[in-house]
């Protein structure tokens, strides 16, 4: 065969394979998109300009839901890429009950921070680690954390008290430091004093840099390219901050391993020294049936995942609950009466208290319904997704379970925009669809930390209400998605110390 043929034939083969794949994907795309009627869109941007990840996007989405479908919306990201937004418990269930992987774009940006921990891994690695990590959230492990949450909340209460009577405070920043304080104690037994330190430690500064720089990256499209980002000053700062966080976790893991080795030799396990077990203890002791444990790199990824997933989410949940209670004083008073009757001024809460705050719990849930800290989760389809009405979405497309949209779907919730905690009374919850209220997602990839989060939120809300009367201050907060749901200009509340 002539020399040119050796070059030409493989190239021609490659091009034809690609062409065939492209044609097949176009046919399957057409087959999928033809089944849905999309709201009118711009020929180039698609729905990108209408679908803003903040409060201004909500009326548009609401209108689309009422005009087109309250089950699934086909929207366009640019001219060619459809995105399926599932906005009803039935359609959310169809995606959340699968093991489809997370989408690479958004979740991929998290990889340098949290590696291949539980949130991002999939397949057999995820299966194994979910099984090994589940005991870390057993109630026997969570029980002593109630004291740690009380401690962190009391530090915050002292800080607020020292600001003087009638001060106005931005909730999220303070609560985010408080939940970081707690998650560091619960996961690593690390007492950072981050709430009171005048200067943040390099580690705390790095955690904050990461959150800020991550949001900047999501918003600035050129930064979506790994090459451009790693060459930019922001990217360099981001990767440096990730190194600081990783080095910190690695050091703690190394030290703990050494301590455990020593303790075993002298037969003095940590738990007998009166310390509660933290997540790191569980991760170090986790074993497969054949006795294989997690590697140091896997433990580090899981620790970093807990730190990342476990503080701003909860801070968002507490901030919005306090906001709703400041807005609806009758419910705030009712919660305070409930807390007062239980605690009688006690400043440390117990595990048993957790089931004794039914109305406060309803208020937290109603706030999670209206302002879920994680407003939606997305998946890349690897096989057909069959919707309850028989329509199919082809592999390769993105399906987004709209948690917030489902929580406000008028087919499911009466007067969805009204804050009404009694929706969560036992009688009113009895016949509710299992996927109507999904702040912690649902199905196999649901939030492993949901009980931890609910306990932390109950402790914080109860102790804060015991100490302060909360009043609105300034215009209503305008929500936006910044990894978690936050308020653009903060949630500012006036605090009146209770006598
Ligand atoms: C109010 C607080 C919280 C909310 C609203 C929340 C919400 C969620 C949601 C919606 C998911 C699913 C994400 C997805 O599918 O992409 C998730 C997953 C996860 N959450 Fe949470 N979360 C909260 C607190 C926590 C806490 C405190 C921890 C750990 C201490 C935690 C650890 C995780 C982990 C590890 C996953 C991944 C689970 C898996 O894929 O197997 N979360 N969370």
Kindly list the characteristics that best describe this protein.
Cytochrome p450, 4-stranded mixed β-sheet, 3-stranded antiparallel β-sheet, globular, binds protoporphyrin IX containing FE
- What is the CATH C-level name? Mainly Alpha
Bound small molecules, by name, code or SMILES, are: protoporphyrin IX containing FE
Broad structural category: alpha+beta
Most strands sheet: 4 strands, mixed
Strand order of the largest sheet: 1-2-7-4
Individual helix count: 20
What is the terminal-to-terminal distance?
96 Å
The fraction of residues assigned to DSSP E strands is 5-15%
Radius of gyration: 25 Å
Q: Please, how many domains? A: 1
CATH topology assignment: Cytochrome p450
**Architecture (CATH level 2) name:** Orthogonal Bundle
Helical content (DSSP H or I, runs of 4+): 40-55%
CATH homologous superfamily designation: Cytochrome P450
Rough shape? globular
* Weakly predicted, low-confidence segments: none
Number of strands: 11
Mean pLDDT: 90
């Amino acid at each position: 065969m002539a020399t040119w043929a050796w070059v030409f034939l493989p190239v021609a083969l490659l091009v034809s394979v690609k062409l065939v794949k492209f044609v097949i994907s176009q046919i399957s795309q057409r087959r999928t998109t033809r089944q849905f009627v999309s709201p009118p869109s711009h020929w180039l941007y698609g729905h990108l300009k209408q679908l803003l990840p903040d409060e201004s996007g909500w009326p548009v989405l609401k209108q689309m839901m009422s005009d087109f479908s309250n089950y699934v919306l086909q929207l366009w990201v640019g001219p060619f890429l459809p995105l399926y937004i599932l906005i009803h418990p039935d359609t959310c269930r169809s995606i959340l009950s699968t093991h489809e992987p997370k989408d690479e774009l958004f979740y991929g940006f998290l990889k340098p921070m949290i590696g291949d921990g539980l949130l991002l891994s999939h397949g057999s690695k995820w299966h194994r680690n979910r099984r090994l990590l589940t005991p870390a959230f057993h109630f026997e492990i969570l029980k002593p954390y109630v004291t740690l949450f009380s401690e962190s909340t009391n530090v915050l209460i002292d800080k607020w008290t020292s600001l003087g009577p009638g001060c106005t405070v931005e909730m999220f920043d303070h609560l985010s430091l408080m939940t970081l304080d707690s998650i560091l104690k619960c996961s690593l037994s690390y007492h950072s004093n981050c709430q009171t330190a005048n200067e943040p430690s390099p580690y705390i500064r790095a955690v904050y840099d990461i959150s800020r720089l991550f949001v900047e990256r999501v918003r600035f499209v050129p930064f979506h390219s790994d090459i451009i980002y790693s060459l930019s000053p922001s990217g360099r700062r981001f990767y440096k901050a990730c190194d600081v966080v990783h080095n910190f976790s690695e050091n703690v893991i190394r030290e703990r391993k050494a301590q455990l080795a020593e303790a075993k030799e002298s037969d003095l396990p940590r738990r007998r020294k009166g310390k509660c077990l933290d997540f790191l203890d569980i991760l170090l002791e986790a074993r497969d049936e054949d006795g294989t444990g997690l590697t140091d790199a896997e433990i580090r990824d899981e620790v970093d995942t807990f730190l990342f997933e476990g503080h701003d989410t909860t801070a968002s949940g507490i901030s919005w609950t306090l906001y709703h209670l400041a807005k609806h004083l009758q419910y705030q008073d009712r919660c305070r009466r409930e807390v007062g009757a239980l605690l009688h001024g006690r400043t440390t809460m117990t595990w048993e208290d957790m089931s004794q705050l039914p109305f406060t719990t309803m208020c937290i849930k109603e706030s999670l319904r209206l302002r879920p800290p994680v407003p939606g989760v997305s998946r890349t389809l690897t096989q057909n997704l069959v919707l309850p009405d028989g329509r199919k979405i082809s592999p390769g497309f993105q399906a987004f379970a709209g948690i917030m949209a489902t929580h406000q779907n008028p087919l499911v919730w009466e007067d969805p925009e009204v804050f009404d905690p009694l929706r969560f009374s036992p009688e009113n919850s009895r016949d509710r669809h299992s996927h109507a209220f999904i702040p912690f997602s649902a199905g196999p990839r649901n939030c492993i930390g949901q009980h931890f989060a609910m306990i932390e939120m109950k402790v914080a809300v109860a102790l804060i209400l015991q100490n302060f009367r909360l009043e609105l201050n300034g215009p209503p907060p305008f929500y936006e998605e910044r990894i978690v749901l936050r308020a653009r200009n903060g949630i500012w509340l006036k605090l009146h110390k209770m006598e």
